Amino acid sequence: MTEAEKDEFIENLEEELTELRDNYADIVRERDSLQAQVDSLTARIEGARDDLEDVVRGLGS
């Protein structure tokens, strides 16, 4: 393998590594966004459940 071929090979590897890092960063951002949505929905569900329990208790009184 010539020096030029080695340099090109290394450059290609560096480009691939950069792309992989960018993809990983995108995945982490998407995961964080989805987790925030899950947390929000969970809070809403818990709030609705608490409200429903209050209504049921009120009906039993």
By oligomeric state, this entry counts as single chain
What spatial form do the alpha-carbon principal axes imply?
Answer: rod-shaped
Mean pLDDT: 97
Q: What fraction strand?
A: under 5%
What integer value in Å does the Rg equal? 26 Å
Flag low-confidence runs: none
Structural class, from secondary structure content?
mainly alpha
Number of helical segments with 4 or more residues? 1
| Largest sheet report | none
SSE string, helices as H and strands as E = H
Helix content: over 70%
Count every beta strand, where a strand is a DSSP E run of 2 or more residues.
Answer: 0
Distance between the termini: 86 Å
InterPro entries: Med7/Med21-like
Coiled coil: 3-51
Keywords: Coiled coil, Transcription, Transcription regulation
Structure description:
This protein is mostly helical. The chain is 95% helix and 0% strand. It contains 1 helix and no strands. It starts with a helix and ends with a helix.
Descriptors for this entry?
rod-shaped, single chain, coiled coil, mainly alpha, 95% helix, 61 residues, Med7/Med21-like, transcription regulation, transcription
